[in-house]
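Notes to self, UPF0434 protein ROE7235_02557:
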Amino acid sequence: MSAPERGFDRHMLEALVCPITKAQLRYDAAAQELVSRPAHLAFPIRNGIPIMLVDEAREID
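result:
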């Protein structure tokens, strides 16, 4: 059995939306984040699990 791929299941992205704007999220594989451009936030992915808490998100330009 091969090792699991780093990151998270991309199919999950279809079901997730920004908790503030309900907008679609963009997956940033390099930073391991889900980005909401309308909210100017990036939500971290830790151990393959998206952390969709506003308090855990980082502000982006």
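- Residues 10-59 form a domain with the N-terminal domain of TfIIb fold (CATH 2.20.25.10).
- The chain has one domain: 10-59.
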